[in-house]
Amino acid sequence: MNIFVILISLFVALMILVPLLEKYQSKMGLDGATKYAKYIWPLVMISLVVQLIYMLVR
After folding, report:
1. What is the pLDDT of residues 15-58, one digit of tens each?
2. Is the pTM higher than 0.70?
3. If you write DSSP's letter for every residue of 4-49 in order, what string do you get?
4. Could you tell me the maximum CA-CA distance found in the chain, to the nearest angstrom?
């Protein structure tokens, strides 16, 4: 049952986010994308460390 809730929420989020991203994509441009891209790898690494700690404690 949980998988259905997750799938439905993902589809709803995509139905909301895709039109918003298409609407505001032209305003962001390449400069805005590179400004936010530098934060992606540190956030991914932090989330991996948090997941690792969670799995070790659990």
Report:
1. 888 787 777 776 656 666 676 677 788 888 999 899 989 888 88
2. no
3. HHHHHHHHHHHHHHHHHHHHHHHHHHHHHHHHHHTTHHHHHHHHHH
4. 44
DSSP symbol at 58: -
17: its two tokens: 């986010």
Rounded (5°) CA angle 41-57-54: 25
Residue in the block written with tokens 């589809």? 11
Q: Nearest 5°: CA angle at 25, between 9 and 45?
A: 60
Positive or negative CA dihedral for 51, 56, 57, 58? positive
The CA distances from residue 16 to 19, 29, 37, in Å, are 6, 21, 22
